[in-house]
Amino acid sequence: MIVGTAGHIDHGKTSLVRALTGVDTDRLKEEKARGISIELGFAYLPAPDGSVLGFVDVPGHEKFVHNMLAGATGIDFVLLVIAADDGVMPQTREHLAIVDLLGIDRGIVALTKADLVDPPSRAKVVADIAQLLEGTSLSGAEIVPVSTISGDGIDELRDRLFDAAHTIQARADAERFRLAVDRSFTLPGIGTVVTGTVLSGSVSTGDRVMISPSGLVARVRSIHAQDRPTERGIAGQRCALNLAGDGITKDAIERGQMVLDPDLHAPTDRIDATLRLLATEAKSVSQWMPARLHHAATEVGARIVLLGDTPIPPGGEALVQLVLDRPIAAAEGDRFVLRDTTAQRTIGGGEFLDLRAPARKRRTPERLAQLQAHAIRDAEQALAGLLEISPHFADLSIFVRDRALGENQARAIGERLGLIKATAGGHVFALSAPVWLRLKRSLLATLESFHSENPDLPGIGLERLRLQLDPRLPAPAFLSILQGLVTGQEIALDGAWVRLAGHEVRLTAEDEKIWSKVGPLIGGGERFRPPRVRDIGTMLMLREPEVRRLLKLLGRMGKVDEVAHDHFFLRTTVAEMVDIIVDLGATATDGQFTAAQFRDRVDNGRKVAIQILEFFDRHGVTLRRGDLRRVNKHRLDLFRVAEAASRNQPNSGRESSPVGRPDFKSGRGREPVLGGFDSLSLPPQKMKDLAR
Ligand SMILES: Nc1nc2c(ncn2[C@@H]2O[C@H](COP(=O)(O)OP(=O)(O)OP(=O)(O)O)[C@@H](O)[C@H]2O)c(=O)[nH]1
Ligand SMILES: [Mg+2]
Fold first, then answer.
1. What 8-state DSSP symbol labels residue 663?
2. Atom of ligand 1 nearest to the CA of 148
3. CA-wise closest residue to 239 among 176, 197, 201
4. 152 CB within 6 A, ligand 1
5. Region for residue 541 given its phi and psi (left: phi exceeds 0; alpha: psi -120 to 50; beta: otherwise)
6. What is the mean pLDDT of the chain?
7. Which of 167-171, 190-194, 341-345, 363-367 shows the lowest mean pLDDT across its residues?
8. What distance in angstroms lies between residue 478's CA and the mean position of ligand 2's atoms?
9. Can you tell me which atom of ligand 1 is nearest the CA of 8?
10. 16 near 26, Cβ under 8 Å?
11. Chain segment 543-574, per-residue pLDDT in tens
12. Which of 487, 500, 485 is nearest to 446 (CA)?
């Protein structure tokens, strides 16, 4: 358990910690000289049960409230110190407000300097205090009179703390590791040491950690937890970590940074949150109001964007967006405190809801519903809530990271909720099973109606399909679920075209008629220099745009390729030419060949030969260096056609290709490939007729 002091200047916080632990936490020369605390003080007290209580002693001076805030982070139990002779004072109120805003609800009031007042005055102060606590997280807390001079009440108070340590719930350490740094220094012979409270998770020697937001990487060489050497520090302990790594020095790490599990490193400067304005404020919070934001041990300038319609009145609570001057390391559910820009008073505070707040459309009903779900602290319920509302999917990787959830926690939640996951670009997206079913049904229905309306198209464009569906998944996630459906043989993916697995493209009767004439023209003996669109139009007395439209359509069907503008080759011919360059590469000594060598093999003139090679360059089939090219074996399959199709290739009557048949990985000889003349093949005689 970590105990933190709070209270007005000179009320006896440091004296009380010394009386309880024997440690004087005012170590600075200036602190000694001025008789006040400036910095945070730390002390430890072994308990009878073998555990160790940690103490964070904070300064009471109004100028050092920022230090008090840094110290109050991660404490389990507060000792609100109020001097009996002085009573409730400004920083008594301010520190109590901070404790309340941070949600710290375990604590005792130590009525110090009890030796200085008579019983009636003491009774009055006690009554004041009880009233002060009302309505705060410490409402009804015990008030224990003590005196560090006479020693009265000290043993009782210490026993109360030991009791509390038993009942305080051990913080879950299943989450990922985060430590809020409050000090960084160098120890001779040891190196860089940082100290702080472990906010979540655990850390072990040898662990790789990251300093956030700076992004420095370090290894944990050794650990002290609650002032004792150990192999592992856990949530709720104050730890000192000896860190080593590139750039790790005492100056590279400062108070306010976090040491964390590298997976959690994702600084943010725009956070949606709840904000409660203190009732003691004179003015409402207005749009774009500036403030100082205190979170964990850090402090940063911020602007407040109201997400509701009206200013937040004193004592009111509302949703806001916090726009920070620089990014910080945080987690959803973390508490924060706001102070005014001149650092003179605390004005309010609240809880971070969403660390990935949008800069636009931040107040739509949809967005506000999402924030309601984010506000649920139980991760499983929050995720279930998010998946129920628009956009009906969640980036699980971000959800898990921003809540600092451990791997096991994330897995268990995924299983219990029966999530459907799609992995894309290193992120996991999640859908609920009912939403997935609905998405799949409408996807298949969309494809079906598309096919029936467009029987001559190979499928619907991937992006067009994505935009038609709800939920509208991010493109990479959408592709990933499509691939799942391909594996399940429900759909097929053809480049950027999606179709039902059973769908076959059929040309309209009219197009088929034209194709039966065009196909042989570009696939015959002149197939390496087929007529261009305009020539085909002239030869067949067809309108040029008509020929172009049909060939483009066949291009999408994978039957032809537009090698150069308006110059279409059969896919089979392209595949044949791929074989030729493979052969050229294989016979050349260094695998490189010239355009002239290629032209000699296809005998189609220099210009066309070069256009073909440039087409291959564009598709990465060939890699060009100067005048030489070599084959890129990874791209050879690009123009290969299914082997089954080769059985009814249209020009099977022609002489077999002079090209060798290189063996591929499968060990089988490669079939001369084929476009899709399948249903349209013509008898050789007819082809000759047409070619005339
Ligand atoms: N008579 C009496 N004096 C006390 C008692 N506790 C503390 N004092 C005196 O009060 C003064 C302030 O005590 P500190 O412990 O430094 O007070 P503090 O709350 O830590 O002050 P800051 O850290 O500066 O906010 C010192 O002179 C103490 O000797 C007490 O129980 N009785
Ligand atoms: Mg002090």
1. B
2. 31
3. 197
4. no
5. left
6. 90
7. 167-171
8. 59
9. 25
10. no
11. 999 999 999 989 878 889 999 999 999 999 99
12. 500
pLDDT in tens, 203-226: 999 999 999 999 999 999 999 999
Q: Of all protein residues, whose CA lies closest to atom 2 belonging to ligand 1?
A: 113
Q: How many other CB atoms sit within 10 Å of the CB of residue 647?
A: 10
**Does the beta carbon of 116 lie inside 6 Å of ligand 1?**
yes
How far is residue 104 from each of residues 78, 138, 222, measured CA to CA in Å?
7, 8, 30
pLDDT at 479 over 60: yes
Element (H, E) at 598: helix 595-602
Task: Tell me the residue type at 511.
Answer: D
- Ligand 1 atom at minimum distance from 31 CA: 24
Closest residue by CA, ligand 1 atom 4: 113
Assess whether the C-beta atom of 207 lies below 6 angstroms from ligand 1. no
How many other C-beta atoms are found inside a 10 Å radius of the C-beta of residue 361? 8
Lowest model confidence (mean pLDDT) among 400-409, 424-433, 611-620: 424-433
For tokens 């939403």, the residue is 435
> Which of 9, 10, 34, 144 has the most ligand 1 atoms within 8 A of CB, as the residue to mutate?
10
The pTM is what? Answer: 0.77
Q: How remote is the CA of residue 258 from the centroid of ligand 1, in Å?
A: 33
Helix ranges (DSSP H) in 102-191: 119-133, 154-167
12 Cα–ligand 2 center, Å: 7
Class of residue 667 by CB neighbours under 10 A (exposed 0-12, middle 13-18, buried 19+) = exposed
Atom number of ligand 1 nearest to Cα 9: 25
Strand 52-57 and strand 2-6: the pairing is parallel
Q: Which two tokens stand for residue 357?
A: 């707040």
Whether the CB of 15 sits within 6 Å of ligand 1 = yes
CA of 15, closest atom in ligand 1: 15
Q: Is 272 exposed, middle or buried (0-12, 13-18, 19+ CB in 10 A)?
A: buried
Pick the atom of ligand 1 nearest to 60's CA: 25
CA distances from 521 to 537, 661, 662 (A): 11, 26, 28
Please tell me the distance between residue 80's alpha carbon and the centre of ligand 1 in angstroms: 14
Question: What is the helix, strand, coil percentage profile of the chain, to 5?
Answer: 35, 25, 35
Decide: 73 in ligand 1 pocket, CB within 6 A: no
In the block, residue with structure tokens 């937040």: 312
Structure token pair of residue 170: 């051990």
Mutate to test the pocket of ligand 1, among 5, 8, 15, 82 (most ligand atoms within 8 A of CB): 15
Cα gap 133→688, rounded to integer Å: 102
Burial degree of 129 (CB within 10 A; 0-12, 13-18, 19+):
buried
